[in-house]
Amino acid sequence: MARLRFEGVGVRFGDARVLDGIDLDLTERRIGVVGANGSGKSTLARLINGLVSPTSGRLLVDDLDVAREGRAVRRRVGFVFTNPDSQIVMPTVREDVAFTLRPRKLPKAETSARVDAVLDRLGIAHLADRPAHHLSGGQKQLLALAAVLVGEPDVLVADEPTTLLDARNAREIAARFAELPQQVLLVTHQLGLVADFDRVLVVDAGRIVADDEPGPALAFYERLLDAEDAASGGRP
Ligand SMILES: Nc1ncnc2c1ncn2[C@@H]1O[C@H](COP(=O)(O)OP(=O)(O)OP(=O)(O)O)[C@@H](O)[C@H]1O
């Protein structure tokens, strides 16, 4: 497992303080991140592979400082977005997955073998020559996952990867994540997806307000939502 260390990390966008004073040492295999809309979860996730830079403090993946060694970090940390369209770049499924390996300049046969293996593992080998943009939402998310996994990252960060999917596809993607050997940090609003994780972080207004096993962390989050509902007079 990698060690993800946040040391006094803060992020501002202009005048808005989006994350503040985040200190975390994450070594567990399955880490969930939950919190209300706009609480800072995506920003927290994006910091891990350098999509967002800290305004203060620093973030280390093992001994690599993300701000200084972004390339090396991105080889180790794969990122899956909510909307797979934002990461599909090539015309066909096979080409899109192979694209991840392009900078590594591997022999063609090795690239093909790796691509075939990952498509097979995710149950989408039959889609290899299909145009990527003709796939269903669930198939696209599996393609996005394949394109990340083919790079053999040690850590997978996923930002609400099931949000745009119907219940059946969401279950399928969640099951694929559950069987990955990699360390996974999953941001989600679907609390059931992290119920058997090793550790769950609750983010509220840019801070970590609970950090525990799923039972107590999710119970804390439910109480927080209830308290906010009560304070707003029950308005959504
Ligand atoms: N690039 C940016 N520039 C300016 N403000 C931003 C940027 N990215 C995020 N924000 C703001 O930072 C805050 C936290 O956003 P973030 O996306 O991290 O929240 P979130 O918890 O993931 O929300 P959601 O559950 O709705 O996805 C929000 O107020 C958002 O508008």
UniProtKB/TrEMBL annotation:
This is ATP-binding cassette domain-containing protein. The keyword DNA-binding does not apply. The keyword Transport applies. It comes from the Bacteria. Transmembrane segments: none annotated. Residues 4-230 form the ABC transporter domain. Belongs to the ABC transporter superfamily. Keywords: ATP-binding, Nucleotide-binding, Transport. SMART domains: AAA. Gene3D superfamilies: P-loop containing nucleotide triphosphate hydrolases. The lineage of its organism: Bacteria, Bacillati, Actinomycetota, Actinomycetes, Micrococcales. It comes from Agromyces seonyuensis. GO terms for molecular function: ATP binding; ATP hydrolysis activity; ATPase-coupled transmembrane transporter activity. PANTHER family: ENERGY-COUPLING FACTOR TRANSPORTER ATP-BINDING PROTEIN ECFA1, HEAVY METAL TRANSPORTER. One of its GO terms (cellular component) is ATP-binding cassette (ABC) transporter complex.
